[in-house]
Amino acid sequence: MSQTFRPVRPPARLVTVVVAALAVLLTVAGCTGDTVTGQAKSNLWDPDNVGGLPLTDGPSGLRADAGDPAGDVAYTNNGPEDRLAMLAVDDLTDYWKDHFDTDLDGTFRPVDHYASYDSRDPNGPELCGENGFQSPNAFFCYPMDLMAWDRGVLIPTGRKYFGDASIAGLIAHEYGHAVQRMAHLTDRSTPTLVAEQQADCFGGTYLRWVAEGKSTRFELNTGEGLTKVLAGVIAVRDPVWDEEHAEMVTEGHGTALDRVTAVQRGFVEGIGACARIDLDEIDARRGDLPILLQSDPAGAPQSGDIPLDAATMKVLTTQLATQFALDPAPAVSMTAPAAPCPDAQPTLGASYCPTSNTITLDLAALQRLGAAADLEQGVLVQGDNTAMSLVVSRYMLALQHQHGAKLDDATASLRTACLTGYAERHMVDPKEMPKGDSITLSAGDMDEAVAGLLNNGLAASDVNGQTVPAGFARVSAFRAGLLDDSPDACFTRFPSPTTETKTNG
């Protein structure tokens, strides 16, 4: 985020994000808070459903009866990592044999060659013209019709932190690149972003097939299992680019929101939607969200982080009061802990009490939640908007309270995420901000918000700090709000029996 009165900070160091970064991640998706369930309102937005499928718990990963892989892997050490990856390849071959002709032109032909390597070994094989030493990766090499992966670092760390299903998702992305060429969707002139988004999307179609129980090798629950897979997708997002790297807007792999959106689009809409992804489609869903860090008058890129102190919180809550014009506006206390509230439990970092119409902020907790951190610090991604989006979400509870909406169920948690997305989308253009001090989003803020939604779910929690089990649903609700023209859409999408129709946003 940026603030009109803050001094310029030194530029943030760009971090090249590769799949190897999984090795330094801590457990992510298993760290969510308490969960609640709810009653169905519609299939897609029902808290008990995930992208139209029932919310499920239980096992995720390799089936006990998966058997042995059918294909041969060059340079293999015959270990469990190569077995897992090759079983994923076999599974994807079966999937695409049955689904390619339904939605795509061209002819499906299984990938011919497979190879593994150990990125810790300087004497490993040369694959697709490169030695894989110190380059943990997975890739499809079109000229050689070769699928390859690193069994030394990539596969073991992915399994450890995100589970076996994440490896199937990883291979699904690479197989998606092979499918692109078979379907004549991409060539050398295709922007990298389009090719990567299509591959992410194709991976999402396969993940749905697995979640539907149609795979004979893998299984995937739509709660924690799918949340972990999405966390793995975020782990390999692009770094936050500055204006010096403007070409990466179209030649990168995509932001966290880009990548999760593409996977979710495939999961919900299917193969045909993936084939239609192009720059126009990506630009439309990005809208005016900032992608590049702006430069200060001296030409240095700004860091995008602001101090999470009392002054900043006063500006933020005053800005929200102006935007939503609540009558009366909630009182804001910065004296933690929150006073006892008869109709709500406290939430870590920021709490809302309907009876007193008071938001209580715990600055120390917010500073911990929003401390700038990334893969090198062992977290998915974290920054000021991890905390700021939580504060915004408590203000959105005040908005719902004024509308008479129920605040303590699963529907309320998703409605809160949706309204938080709506509020943050209107913190982009400085011209839309109130006069005086104001806060606007900067590049990287959406990554921080989405990671927070998957990690702790606090910005998608109800008045008691409870969230829904599916990170997929939390992100979907937030993203829907980002695209809405009015907060009314969130109330319609996630209705409450006592919700009024009038809004003040």
What does it look like?
Residues 47-75 are annotated as: Disordered. Residues 1-29 form the signal peptide. β2 and β3 (53-54) form a beta hairpin. α12 (384-402) packs across α13. 40% of the residues lie in helices and 9% in strands. The protein has helices spanning 80-103, 154-162, 164-182, 192-211, 224-235, 248-251, 256-269, 271-275, 279-286, 310-324, 363-369, 384-402, 410-425, 445-455, 471-483, 488-493; strands at 2-3, 49-50, 53-54, 61-62, 113-117, 126-127, 130-131, 138-141, 146-150, 218-219, 241-242, 292-293, 331-333, 350-353, 358-361, 439-440. With 505 residues, it is mainly α. The radius of gyration is 23 Å and the shape is elongated. The strands form seven sheets. A three-stranded mixed beta sheet has the order 5-9-8, with helices on one face. It has a three-stranded mixed beta sheet with strand order 13-15-14. The chain has a two-stranded antiparallel ribbon with strand order 1-16. The protein has two domains: 2-19 and 304-493, no CATH class; 61-286. The protein starts with a strand and ends in a 12-residue tail after the last helix. It is built from 16 helices and 16 strands.
Question: In summary, what is this structure?
Answer:
The protein has 505 residues and is mainly alpha-helical. The protein contains 16 helices and 16 strands.
